[in-house]
Amino acid sequence: MTGPERREQLIAVGRKLFADKGFEATTVEEVAAKANVSKPVVYEHFGGKEGLYAVVVDREIQALMGGISAALEEPEGARVLLERATLALLDYIESDPAGFRILVRDSPPGQSTGSFASVLGDVAVQVEHLLAAEFKQRGLDPKSAPIHAQMLVGMVALTGQWWLDRRKFKKDQVAAHLVNLAWNGLSGLDRSPRLVTVPHR
């Protein structure tokens, strides 16, 4: 194998092990054994397990963000964009469950980037701008867009995690239910929301 071919082989082997066992339970010895190379070859290409994991996670983030960003690029109505973004995440989960499992597992200690949380944060920022414009049109406070963006993204992501292991519903059904709750919830927003259980002051 050439150097680039060997690197790709090690990435594929590492990706499968990280998806099956997680970062902590995967060892350089296992990666080397599955790739039929010595441990120094893994170190030569990635500097260790952390380096290999970082490459794998970065590729998964690019794949997921690419799909979601493309879904949000077209200048369509808010509901259509919500449907597209929801389907983009579910498409990724359906077509690449191993990659999604890698992203949703805990990142190694001390790693502040590359985690699923940072991906969701990036998506929420994109959604926030769309919501702010929509809120302005509807006479709602655009300053509340960030919290609604976090809620929407979190709802879709957690439902996606649930669906990954319990495929009782088809992808389109899951997306339809998510969009139904999100869209109808957004459509009926109070201008000044407050809790009914808390006395007014």
UniProtKB/TrEMBL annotation:
A family per Pfam: TetR_N
Key words, A-Z: DNA-binding
Annotated DNA-binding residue span(s): 27-46
Domain HTH tetR-type as annotated: residue spans: 4-64
InterPro entries assigned to the protein according to its UniProt record, in alphabetical order: DNA-bd_HTH_TetR-type_CS, Homeodomain-like_sf, HTH-type_TetR-like_transc_reg, HTH_TetR, Tet_transcr_reg_TetR-rel_C_sf, TetR_C_32
Superkingdom as given in the UniProt entry: Bacteria
Protein name as it appears in the record: TetR/AcrR family transcriptional regulator
Organism the protein comes from: Terrabacter ginsenosidimutans
